[in-house]
Amino acid sequence: MSAPRPHAQFDDLSLAEAASLFSALGSEQRLSVLRTLLRAGPKGLSIGELGNRTGITGATLTHHMKTLAAVGVVKQEKQGRSVICIAADYDQLQSQLTGLLDECCADCTDDTCTPEAHCHD
Question: pTM for the whole thing?
Fold first, then answer.
């Protein structure tokens, strides 16, 4: 058996950012909003269409958008009279998820235990 691998690049700051992100995504409605915007692509959706697709409208949708914008995964842009909602930072979202998954098997002392060849079922 070998010593545990050194910790990956998921430092304390990254951990705090990930905690904020996962906290924001800890609501089924907010997760639905983000998923809907990711599915819509880079052009986003009007606030009305986002409400129609998610079933969340008014002040509740505004609150959820504000929470998601605070962690940087969505943004709103004014286009004429419309407010367009966009999944803002796909790279940040992917980075946070990948950073967490990169921790897999970091402290495992079995040489065969790697993220690529899991030793657990």
Answer: 0.76
**Can you count the helices (H) and strands (E) in the chain?**
5, 3
Joined together, the tokens standing for residue 102 give 């990169």
Phi, psi of 75 (to 5 degrees): -145, 165
**Helix, strand and coil percent figures for the chain, each rounded to 5:** 50, 10, 40
DSSP letter (8 states) at residue 33 = H
Distance between CA 82 and CA 78 in Å, rounded?
A: 6
Give the model confidence (pLDDT) of 89-119 as tens digits.
Answer: 788 788 877 877 777 777 888 777 776 766 5
Give alpha helix (H) positions in the chain: 12-24, 28-40, 47-54, 58-70, 90-101
Task: Give me the half-sphere count of Cα atoms (radius 13 Å) on the Cβ side of residue 72.
Answer: 12
Cα–Cα distance, 44 to 34 (Å, whole number): 11
